[in-house]
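Lecture 7 notes: from sequence to structure.

We start with a single chain of 179 residues. Read the sequence below before looking at the structure.
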Amino acid sequence: MEYTTKTQIYQKVKKPMLERQRRARMNKCLDNLKTLVAELRGDDGILRMDKAEMLESAVIFMRQQKTPKKVAQEEQSLPLDSFKNGYMNAVNEVSRVMASTPGMSVDLGKSVMTHLGRVYKNLQQFHEAQSAADFIQNSMDCSSMDKAPLSPASSGYHSDCDSPAPSPQPMQQPLWRPW
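Now the structure, written as tokens:
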């Protein structure tokens, strides 16, 4: 009878079993990834690929999904520009329709276009005024944090804020010393 160590048992029995379980888990995850990408892409071609091709295709697909999010974030960061572009496209469309409509009064078209231009200008001025007010408010908030409010007796000069108010000094009493 031959004596077998735990290491030999592990190498003969456990290690192959653990490797089979690991491969089965990997294959299950690859199948899940394959079906998920096929559903999201709307393309069943990935289902017929081998594992390496499927992984490459999944990586490419995920990179493509990552790119539009950056574009969407840039669009969200500039809503006013998006609005301006949309408004101008609408104005151009109105102008085109009025020009191509037979029997359209020139005076009516002129007044409509003047009105649309005036509204656009008012919107721009409102946005600029609001931006300026926000800027002023932010700068005032920052500058007022550093300084104490001026008293009514203050002259209003900057030097009033820098110098601390003179504090009354207590009367010095002679200090008792034992010698």
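Helices lie at 6-41, 51-77, 79-100, 106-146, 158-162. Keep this in mind for problem set 3.
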